[in-house]
Amino acid sequence: MPMSKPYVLGIDIGGTNTVFGIVDARGTVIASGAIKTKKHPVFSDYMDELYQEATKLIKANNAEGKIGGIGVGAPNANYYNGKIENAANLIWKGELNLAQDLQDRFGIPVAVTNDANAAAIGEMTYGAARGMRDFIMITLGTGVGSGVVANGQMIYGADGLAGELGHCIARRGGRLCGCGRSGCLETYTSATGVVRTALEFLEASPTVPSVLRNIPSADLTSKDVYDAATAGDPIAQSVFEFTGRVLGEALADFAAFTSPEAFIIFGGLAKAGDLLFKPMREAFDKNALSFHRGKVKILLSELKEADAAVLGASALGWDAMRAANTIGAE
Amino acid sequence: MPMSKPYVLGIDIGGTNTVFGIVDARGTVIASGAIKTKKHPVFSDYMDELYQEATKLIKANNAEGKIGGIGVGAPNANYYNGKIENAANLIWKGELNLAQDLQDRFGIPVAVTNDANAAAIGEMTYGAARGMRDFIMITLGTGVGSGVVANGQMIYGADGLAGELGHCIARRGGRLCGCGRSGCLETYTSATGVVRTALEFLEASPTVPSVLRNIPSADLTSKDVYDAATAGDPIAQSVFEFTGRVLGEALADFAAFTSPEAFIIFGGLAKAGDLLFKPMREAFDKNALSFHRGKVKILLSELKEADAAVLGASALGWDAMRAANTIGAE
Predict the structure, then answer these.
(1) Residues A182 and A293 in one domain
(2) Does residue B176 form part of some domain?
(3) Strands, DSSP E only, in chain B?
(4) Could you tell me if A229 and A260 lie in one domain?
(5) Is residue A1 part of a domain?
(6) Is residue B41 part of a domain?
(7) In this structure, what CATH number is given to the domain that contains residue A138?
């Protein structure tokens, strides 16, 4: 029996771009579009454009009436109340009534969550975590995000804000974090953390030659460090060894919490491959409890980079559709 | 309508004693008994005595045919397969087929889990966590145990071994732990951790007077440290300040994981009251993410000390009964 509503709409709201796409049950992005998040100083103007552009896309793909749910990944988006709350990376301040606003415009059930949780749901629905009931998603981007799935369910916590593993303390009294505290995991194992480590290591070993010394500090990126490490630069290689080790140590503690079947690693830094994964796996096995060693999988995300954000968000659209059908709201 | 099976049997298997009790739906222990865990070198002899004594108790209280389920809390007991696996604190080695053995003898559905998870389920069923969907139980005994409840469900993890928060690293490279690793939370915030801290502090401040110096190191207990702290001994007081701080710092990280409504603190050390809770709360608020500060509750267990172990185990008996009814096994 073909589903009467075979598609969902996934929307990923980033600080710079908003991408959206029509997705089918197998995780194929049928069509997608994008608008600039920062273009509209007023939130409702932004929502107007998003609605117009998404509606155009739906019409152009003969998907009118075929979208069963809308899923949105956005910074600080709260699954429980559907709101974006004080997102540091967005230009609109305070509380934004995102889910209700979209539902009013489209007349389709909407669910929202933060980007890392959306990625976890995407991985569970279409990616490396299919069939897993217990896993932890770790996203290594500008910051470090996470999504915890246990008993086959996304863990949102009492307030919708669970899964902030990037803000567990990796080094007590360590690097100052954007959250105002010190030593958070994301100050070490994010793209910006890699740059901080590189600058520290360069300064600590002034006599060791490194191609990174040719790049002004303010311009240095994690990509530069990766390129240098791949080319055999010893400082750059030690940066990835350190980053992988800090991450592996943290994962060992995380495993003691929910005993996951796997960690799924996603995001720009994950592309460093063995440079990161080798020291991470070694540190995990060295630091994990005996029954986790060599047993908990550490996997690379299987969502295609270009589609991942939309896919993650869209996966939540199926949840929204099911929830609406269950309570008879549709 | 009165329930046809209004009782459950709770069994708590400790290293020294095994206690068991008949419990009603309100958490009243109708009657209880105990046997010595260590008395029988052979596991089946122990099970024979346990079965005989529990059956006597059931008959003496006219509860034959009225027990709907049996719940067991035991070291290293695995909810998924019903087995005790290599429990360091028990005299029987290897795998013990605990749940199946009990079910064969009693003809009543059985569920088992470790003691800390049993305590969490007890707290959720009869205690301080009634009505909570997201909380974390922390048991401070000889070691530090924990049980994580999220979305209203006990989190067992992929292998049944979730919730080992006592083995998260509180001080990287710190004290050697019984698990073979270094710096585990339980080496600092257990009863034995308190003694280790006291001995360290006494040695580090040889000129500071303390009544604890009158007790031979090998005989010192956490109770001695508590008594001394209550009497105003400065070293003993600083031991509890340190213990509370290490625990509060750890809870701040744990909150970032599942964003619980509350932590419930249970076990011998919890009786230290404000000596422990004050520095713990201060450290939590100082180290937690901004949206957790002053918001996540830190509560003392509401299970009566004498009944707690049996109550915790018994609560799992209701689960066993429900599960059996759902799948029509009874």
Answers:
(1) yes
(2) yes
(3) 7-13, 17-24, 29-36, 67-73, 84-85, 95-96, 110-113, 135-140, 144-150, 153-154, 262-266, 297-300
(4) yes
(5) no
(6) yes
(7) 3.30.420.40
Whether residues B114 and B221 fall in one domain: no
| Helical (H) or strand (E) element with A73 | strand A67-73
Number of domains in chain A: 2
Are residues A112 and A217 located together in one domain of the fold? no
Looking from the CA of B207 toward its CB, the CA atoms found within 13 Å total 0
What rounded mean pLDDT belongs to chain A?
94
| B249 at interface of A, judged by CB pairs closer than 8 A | yes
| Domain range enclosing A171 | 131-300
Distance from CA of B59 to the nearest CA of A (A): 38
Give the pLDDT band (50/70/90) at residue B323. Answer: confident
CA A229 to chain B, closest CA, distance in angstroms equals 27
Please tell me what DSSP assigns to residue B294.
Answer: T
Residues A245 and A258 in one domain: yes
Which of B164, B165, B257 is the closest to A162 by Cβ? B257
Interatomic CA distance for residues B100 and B82, integer angstroms: 7
Note the pLDDT tens digit of each residue in B102-126. 999 999 999 999 989 999 999 999 9
ipTM of the complex: 0.91
- The reported pTM is 0.92
Cα(A132)–Cα(A151) distance, integer angstroms:
9
Nearest-Cα residue of chain A relative to residue B288: A181
Structure tokens at A76: 């600080």
The answer to whether residue B1 is domain-embedded is no
By C-alpha distance, the chain B residue nearest A159 is B259
CA gap B116, B138 in Å, rounded: 7
